[in-house]
């Protein structure tokens, strides 16, 4: 039985880091002008109401996307990401067409896009997507978001097990996001097993793995274990924004591990992370790390 629902956490600091990286990776891939497949092994519901009961319960977005929403001084990649979220907040007109975001206009922050919606905003219409989501009601909501799009498959299945069946793709270009909840400690081992198989089948794919910074040895070890799977190059970015609570618990930050990253990613993140850490810091020791082994 799955208890985790991403609606409680949508737009928090971890989503901001993850979706900043996702945006940059997809922009690079789209810029190459060759079709590719987007695979999301843990896709969530696709979009979240920030004024809804679940998001309001913990209101994590207030320490995340809300801190960037109306800032006029965002560096370019963060400005690009926030503008995507602003576009998602524009309601489609009676013909289903989303209006253009006018320069200088900031809509109220009411909605937060999940990773599949960010991919959809960035990729050309008709791009192939494979979206795994195990929770039945989130899978239904996700399917409603993408209803009728022929190239998009919403799979109410286990994304760890399902990834290998998508690889190698045709044509041989794909970006995969693996973003589990780590609700079960077994998820750490499943990430490694699933990634090992994915890289063995399709070594040239781009793979992004999100992980939480929590006091668990499995979380601390995950980046090192992923490094061992990525012979062709990797990038690891981690952002710490808060301290553990008095019992030593809490999500103090998060990381993204990217196998076969775009060569531009390191430089972009190095330019953006100082601003982001400063904007989202909840204590004086907030920090970030970027390390890379180029191809
Ligand atoms: C962190 S959320 C995903 C958020 C989403 N990727 C985003 O960025 O908007 C993790 C999701 O994985 C789902 N899930 C849990 N175990 C799964 C599994 N084995 N396969 C696919 N989905 C799973 C959960 O129901 C939850 O919606």
Automatic annotation (TrEMBL):
Q: Which residues bind S-adenosyl-L-methionine?
A: 19, 42, 115, 133, 158-159, 179
Q: Highest taxon of the source? A: Bacteria
What's the top EC group for this one? transferase
Q: Which reaction does it catalyse?
A: adenosine(2030) in 23S rRNA + S-adenosyl-L-methionine = N(6)-methyladenosine(2030) in 23S rRNA + S-adenosyl-L-homocysteine + H(+)
Q: Does the keyword S-adenosyl-L-methionine apply?
A: yes
Where are the catalytic residues?
A: 179
Keywords (alphabetical) are: Methyltransferase, RNA-binding, rRNA processing, S-adenosyl-L-methionine, Transferase
E.C. number(s) listed in UniProt:
2.1.1.266
Which residues make up the annotated site Interaction with substrate rRNA? 4
Glycosyltransferase found in the keyword field: no
Q: How does it assemble?
A: Monomer.
The record describes the protein's role as:
Specifically methylates the adenine in position 2030 of 23S rRNA.
Q: What is this protein called?
A: Ribosomal RNA large subunit methyltransferase J
Which gene holds the coding sequence for this protein? rlmJ
